[in-house]
Amino acid sequence: MSALKVELVAADRRVWVGESSMVRCRTASGELGILPGHTPLLGILVSGDVVIHTAAGNEVAKVDDGFLSVEHDRVTIVAEHVTVTSSVN
Fold it and tell me: Which domain holds residue 37?
């Protein structure tokens, strides 16, 4: 199975970049799980946790409202503030 290329971006910097098997986040339409091969999507992100499943464990980030883009196994999350809160194995 291929991996997702994920980028978390705050207004002033790139916070986290890496590969993931799945990304979970909240959008204005509800909870969303993104796997490789996901249909292209542009969504409105709401404040909450973003969970990035990696080979080493899960990265959890707190984000403010923002945007989510999914295309060709690339996930880009852009928010005013992004803080990686934990790395769980």
Answer: 4-88
Token pair, residue 15, equals 């916070």
Burial tier of 77 (Cβ tally within 10 Å: 0-12, 13-18, 19+): buried
pLDDT in tens, 74-85: 999 999 999 998
Measuring CA to CA, which residue among 62, 49, 61, 67 is closest to residue 87? 61
Whichever domain contains 30, its CATH number is 2.60.15.10
Separation of alpha carbons 51 and 55, rounded Å: 13
DSSP, collapsed to helix, strand or coil, labels residue 2 as coil
Task: Name the pLDDT band for 1 (thresholds 50, 70, 90).
Answer: low
pTM of the model: 0.91
